[in-house]
Design brief:
Radius of gyration: 19 Å
Structural class: mainly alpha
Strand content: under 5%
CATH architecture: Up-down Bundle
Number of strands: 0
Largest sheet: none
Distance between the termini: 61 Å
Length: about 130
Amino acid sequence: MKKIVTSMMVMSVLSMSLYGYSQEDRLKDMQVMEAAMAQIQKGILSNNDTMVVEGVDNLKKATSNVEVAPKWKMDYSPSYAKQQTENILTYADKIKSSIAEDHKHSASKSYTKILNECISCHNKLRRWK
């Protein structure tokens, strides 16, 4: 009986540890990132600082959730994806500080830089032409 209980416990622990970051998880996070970018843009265009800051927070949370696949699953270097993530987070912080200082043009420039990071990553990963 002890062997059965022990093996059941081991099986349950192993099954929980097998969960990984799936393509569905990545797609969901990318959709949240896209929605956050739209929220930031709308906030900048409508002069709504609260909307911009909420969008930045949503973007940073989703960006931080994205896991980089191991090298054997990719045609590119994991360091490339990590660098893209760091750049997005840095520019997001710049948007927030620009909004706090009432520098809308600087915020929009940082927004554009984030968009460029997204596009360059999609070019490489999705092989956009």
